[in-house]
Design goal:
The protein has a domain of 127 residues: Glutaredoxin (3-Layer(aba) Sandwich), CATH 3.40.30. The chain is globular and about 65 Å long. A seven-stranded mixed sheet has the order 2-1-5-4-3-6-7. It has 183 residues and is α/β, with parallel strands linked by helices.
Length: 183
């Protein structure tokens, strides 16, 4: 009995010690701590003009900011690592978001595969080749750097090139609201 009490006490002490290093992160404010951006300036923040880019899709076509927006209300860029979490997000977009917005381009940004052929293979192996998404092979990390994107980052750019959303995908509600509000 005393061994299990001792073990329990050590476990509690370990949890308390681990939590002590969390500082105020145990009770996050929920406020956005990113620095303010100047609307209309070029950058990755909401209300900034999206930086121009030139990347290749998995079909070998060069995609630029202008071509991604041509004739559309906007474009969505989802940064994927082809993991189960990304698959869940992409499946959610494919089934419940993309059908509602036929006037928006949807791109998967593969920033981890390292080549166009590897990105094409990853898209195919994961069931995303030739569908409603265009997969971009970000082999030089152009989009990753331009949008400060990492796994799950979702960026919405309107047809004027202004970033309307740049945040991690959650449940799709913010993405739906942002897309519904595009001019």
């Amino acid at each position: 009995m005393s061994f299990s009490k001792s073990l329990c006490s050590m476990a509690i002490a370990g949890v308390l010690l681990a939590c002590a290093g969390c500082g105020d992160n145990l009770f996050p404010s929920g406020s956005d701590k990113r620095s303010e951006v100047q609307a209309g300036s070029i950058g990755s923040g909401v209300s900034q003009k999206a930086p121009d880019f030139s990347v290749t899709d998995t079909n070998g076509t060069t995609v630029t900011l202008a071509s991604s927006l041509a004739g559309r209300k906007g474009a969505v860029f989802y940064f994927t690592m082809w993991c189960p979490i990304c698959d869940s997000h992409m499946s959610s977009m494919r089934s419940s978001i993309i059908p509602r917005f036929p006037d928006v381009n949807f791109f998967l940004v593969d920033y981890v595969s390292g080549s166009v052929s590897d990105a094409a293979g990853a898209a195919s192996a994961n069931g995303y080749a030739g569908g409603v998404f265009t997969t971009l092979a970000d082999v030089n990390n152009t989009l990753e750097n331009n949008f400060q994107g990492t796994m799950g980052t979702t960026v919405v750019v309107d047809n004027a090139g202004i970033i309307r959303m740049n945040e991690d995908y959650r449940d799709g509600e913010r993405l739906l609201a942002t897309l519904a509000g595009l001019p």
